[in-house]
Amino acid sequence: MKISFECDCILLGESLRLFLRDFISPKKDCDFIVADKKIESKKPVFVIAEHSPHLKIPFSKEVLISALEERSEERRVGK
Question: Using a CB cutoff of 8 Å and minimum separation of 24, what contacts does 45-49 make?
Fold first, then answer.
């Protein structure tokens, strides 16, 4: 699982860097992008926000990684 992220919220961005350091990849090589709002991208976007269908704030590291792995598996099976 290779992840890039794009966040306006500095605190969320730093949390993602800390929690996902083993999964971080450049945008051109990533499987999907984690963002704090809906963005336009050729890559799939996983949104973390208060009213997100993917993951709501607050969350733990374990819940974050589990949700991302589930999303990654859904994409793999859906191909």
Answer: 46/71, 48/12
On the 0-12 / 13-18 / 19+ scale of CB atoms within 10 A, 68 is buried
CA dist., res. 40 & res. 23, Å (int): 22
Residue-level length of the chain:
79
Structural contact between residues 32 and 3, judged by C-beta atoms closer than 8 angstroms? yes
Angle at 38 between CA 58 and CA 31, to 5 degrees: 85
CB 42 within 8 A of CB 19: no
What are 17-71's pLDDT values in tens digits?
A: 999 999 999 999 999 999 999 999 999 999 999 999 999 999 999 999 999 999 9
> What distance in Å separates the CA atoms of residue 42 and residue 57, rounded to the nearest whole number?
25
